From TrEMBL:
<comment type="pathway">
    <text>Pyrimidine metabolism; UMP biosynthesis via salvage pathway; uracil from uridine (phosphorylase route): step 1/1.</text>
</comment>
<dbReference type="GO" id="GO:0005829">
    <property type="term" value="C:cytosol"/>
</dbReference>
<feature type="binding site">
    <location>
        <position position="197"/>
    </location>
    <ligand>
        <name>substrate</name>
    </ligand>
</feature>
<keyword id="KW-0328">Glycosyltransferase</keyword>
<feature type="binding site">
    <location>
        <position position="195"/>
    </location>
    <ligand>
        <name>substrate</name>
    </ligand>
</feature>
<dbReference type="InterPro" id="IPR010059">
    <property type="entry name" value="Uridine_phosphorylase_euk"/>
</dbReference>
<dbReference type="InterPro" id="IPR000845">
    <property type="entry name" value="Nucleoside_phosphorylase_d"/>
</dbReference>
<dbReference type="InterPro" id="IPR035994">
    <property type="entry name" value="Nucleoside_phosphorylase_sf"/>
</dbReference>
<feature type="binding site">
    <location>
        <position position="72"/>
    </location>
    <ligand>
        <name>phosphate</name>
    </ligand>
</feature>
<dbReference type="Pfam" id="PF01048">
    <property type="entry name" value="PNP_UDP_1"/>
</dbReference>
<dbReference type="InterPro" id="IPR018016">
    <property type="entry name" value="Nucleoside_phosphorylase_CS"/>
</dbReference>
<keyword id="KW-0808">Transferase</keyword>
<dbReference type="GO" id="GO:0009166">
    <property type="term" value="P:nucleotide catabolic process"/>
</dbReference>
<dbReference type="GO" id="GO:0004850">
    <property type="term" value="F:uridine phosphorylase activity"/>
</dbReference>
<dbReference type="GO" id="GO:0044206">
    <property type="term" value="P:UMP salvage"/>
</dbReference>
<comment type="similarity">
    <text>Belongs to the PNP/UDP phosphorylase family.</text>
</comment>
<comment type="function">
    <text>Catalyzes the reversible phosphorylytic cleavage of uridine to uracil and ribose-1-phosphate which can then be utilized as carbon and energy sources or in the rescue of pyrimidine bases for nucleotide synthesis. Shows broad substrate specificity and can also accept deoxyuridine and other analogous compounds.</text>
</comment>
Length: 244
């Protein structure tokens, strides 16, 4: 964004951080990996797990929420890893990603990998399987993210880094604790009708129609359903960040 250079101060409002009040390079300059997920508590548990795995944990160590000045998102850091919550749905993760990408820019980070982790609904897979996303697709199975900007519809690509997918698949094989597959992830605009559920407040289709739709999704390569992947992929692509 060329407008950022003209700003005297950039306030990351939803993180309660700003370039005029915080030293971004000192705080985040060593970050190489960012993991994002919906729940604040899960992202705190994740950073504690990563600290153990990297040998950076200490007895009784707590991990403070860097964004404690707001209740919108939570952020934790250990070594080169940043763990950030994004809430639920495209609007929530979109706001978080705008500010996260600016944070990494102001911190002068390079060679960043961002990975979204979280639960999803599987299609044709055993419960507990892990899906490494090849493409994020919309509810019509197209690999695109559609957004209205200044009253005009903009279509953005949702392809993700192929090499990173291969590396994550290899990690899954080496760990060998759960079924790991590569597939397309369908991103929907809501949890109920958008995902073909029968238990929402409104449902104007029957179970046969639902199962036909899910079969069509499976036949198109979709292996799981969630509500954030399309804008995540689109924003990583536009920012030149390796994401999965």
């Amino acid at each position: 964004n060329p407008h950022l250079e003209k700003m005297k101060e950039d306030i990351l409002y939803h993180f309660a951080l700003g370039t005029g009040t915080h030293d971004f390079p000192a705080m985040f300059g060593d970050v190489k990996f960012v993991c994002v997920g919906g729940s604040a508590s899960r992202m705190k548990a994740f950073i504690a797990y990563i600290a153990e795995e990297l040998g950076l944990a200490s007895p009784g160590c707590d991990y403070p929420n860097i964004c404690a000045g707001t209740d919108r998102y939570a952020m934790y850091k250990v070594g080169p890893v940043l763990s950030v919550s994004h809430g639920m749905g495209i609007p929530s993760i979109s706001i978080m990603l705008h500010e996260l990408i600016k944070l990494l820019y102001h911190a002068k980070c390079s060679n960043i990998t961002i990975i979204r982790i979280g639960t999803s609904g599987g299609i044709g897979l055993e419960p507990g399987s892990v899906v490494v996303t090849a493409q994020a697709v919309d509810a019509t199975f197209k690999p695109q993210f559609e957004q209205v900007v200044l009253g005009k519809t903009v279509i953005r690509s949702t392809n993700l880094d192929e090499q990173l997918a291969k590396e994550l698949m290899q990690c899954g094989k080496e760990i060998d604790q759960f079924n790991t597959v590569i597939g397309n992830t369908m991103c929907t605009l809501d949890f109920y009708e958008g995902q073909g559920r029968l238990d929402g407040a409104i449902c104007l289709y029957n179970e046969e129609e639902k199962m036909r739709y899910l079969k069509d999704a499976y036949d198109s390569g979709v292996r799981n359903i969630e509500m954030e992947s399309s804008v995540f992929a689109a924003m990583c692509n536009l920012s030149g960040i390796k994401g999965k």
